[in-house]
Amino acid sequence: MPNRKPTFFSFCKAICFMVFSNVALVTSKSTIEPCSNSDSCNALLGYTLYTDLKVAEVASLFQVDPISILTANAIDISYPDVENHILPSQLFLKIPIICSCVDGIRKSVSTHYKTRPQDTLSSISDSVYAGLVSPDQIREANSIADPSVLDVGENLVVPLPCTCFNGTDNELPAIYLSYVVKPVDTLAGIAASYSTTITDLMNVNAMGSTSIKAGDILAVPLSACASNFPNYASDHGLIVPNGSYAITASHCVQCSCGQGSSNLYCMPASLAVSCSSMQCKSSNLMLGNVTVQQSSAGCKVTSCAYGGYANGTIITWLSSSLRPRCPGPQQFPPLVAPPTDVTKDSVFAPAPAPQSDGATTKVPKTSTVPKISTAPSTGSISVLPPAAAPIGSFSDASILMNSVAALPTALMIYFLIKLISPF
Ligand SMILES: *[C@@H]1O[C@H](CO)[C@@H](O)[C@H](O)[C@H]1NC(C)=O
Ligand SMILES: *[C@@H]1O[C@H](CO)[C@@H](O)[C@H](O)[C@H]1NC(C)=O
Ligand SMILES: *[C@@H]1O[C@H](CO)[C@@H](O)[C@H](O)[C@H]1NC(C)=O
Ligand SMILES: *[C@@H]1O[C@H](CO)[C@@H](O)[C@H](O)[C@H]1NC(C)=O
Questions:
Q1: How remote is the CA of residue 272 from the centroid of ligand 2, in Å?
Q2: Where is this region: Disordered (predicted)?
Q3: Distance CA 76, CA 64 (A)
Q4: Atom in ligand 4 nearest the alpha carbon of residue 261
Q5: How far is CA 256 from CA 246, 261, 339, 340, 390, in A?
Q6: Nearest CA to ligand 1 atom 8
């Protein structure tokens, strides 16, 4: 399916490169989702460690809970002193963050960075935050007049890219990973690594072609298990990617999204210490317990499920249903030991293209790849993306502010576009 939204990007690409083909422009793009409400969502950042770091150090770079980083990557949290485990340089991790709506676009603004001696805006953006933010975005977010003078100990806001797209992709629950394209990446390789398709990536990111460049930031939809906790629950909207875990209710409850199921499964966390009751009312079942009773009418399934965390209370739901057959045992995503080296734990690193021709695949050929090939096995599946599917805009805004040196050129392009475009 071709790009449904001929973007400013595809338009500018044609003009800019015709007119200014002699000027080397830095054109990292990122997918921007406009928003208007104050809702936030769970999202993920694809982060590559720039040096060896303890789990707790990675967590403090993003100001997130260390345990949430581990569970998002299906790393075993029962490992002794796991927060002080040293993760190797170049390891690829998914960092769970809250994606908000700020000035009309989705972004994460809860991360702050305290400057150290020798820091520059580009070392912070390219190295410490691994390309998830550009020097200019940090400069703008902090109104830095002279980027060559950074005081040590300054507390900088680090705006990070994220998207929500209503928590769905092709009407199925999804959480979005902000992925920084590496030089070896191809769109086909990224699609294969994350069990999605080229077509879907192109639709989500409103791309006109399959070409990507190192430094571009793509929104990659990951199939997930969604919750339906009430609005007043502090973990309202919890969504857990397939194959991983999340920890919630003040470390008392652990929820997982296993293979072949789109249902979130929650039970008491292994770390649970001082927690409110996790027993379902008027029953002896604990959170996560399921009992089955076979009869001629079918299988009576009684379960005690988690319903969110509100006012320090763990909400539980006791439910009974009659099903044609009894469910099998709960499937848990496999846990891995805390990684110690990058090559061995290749599961964390997205693979390059699965085939050598992935890089040059043409749009018409790939657009016939039906979404069904990697869609989850549950639910009804439509081959064509529905009209309500999320649409991103693969923005070229960074052309206009990528470097101070490029500014005059950028301004010329900007005014040229203004002159000849209707928006
Ligand atoms: C958002 O997703 C929900 C299901 O999760 C759906 O009912 C609703 O229609 C979607 N809204 C939009 C605007 O797509
Ligand atoms: C109920 O859940 C608790 C906590 O996860 C577990 O220890 C116990 O074995 C479960 N009981 C049954 C009957 O499944
Ligand atoms: C939580 O507590 C506040 C104040 O104590 C109360 O107004 C609110 O209704 C409570 N919410 C729930 C879900 O119990
Ligand atoms: C989860 O991922 C596995 C492969 O890792 C896949 O076989 C399964 O169908 C996926 N489940 C869902 C609900 O997407």
A1: 14
A2: 346-371
A3: 18
A4: 13
A5: 6, 10, 20, 24, 25
A6: 166
Task: Give CA–CA dist 222/167, Å, rounded.
Answer: 10
**Which residues, other chains included, contact 359 with Cβ-Cβ below 8 Å and sequence gap of 6+?**
186, 188, 353
Q: How many angstroms does the Cα of residue 281 sit away from the middle of ligand 2?
A: 15
* Cβ 232 under 6 angstroms from ligand 3: yes
Judge contact between 282 and 265, C-beta under 8 A.
Answer: no
Amino acid 420: pLDDT: 46
**pLDDT the model gives residue 302:** 95
Ligand 2, CB cutoff 6 Å, lining residues: 267-268, 286, 288-289
Of all ligands present, the nearest one to the C-alpha of 334 is 4
Residues in the chain: 423
Q: What angle do CA 68, 73, 76 make, to 5 degrees?
A: 80
CB count, 10 Å around CB of 214? 12
Ligand closest to the CA atom of residue 389 = 1
Position in ligand 3 atom list of the atom nearest CA 232: 13
Average pLDDT over residues 106-130: 96
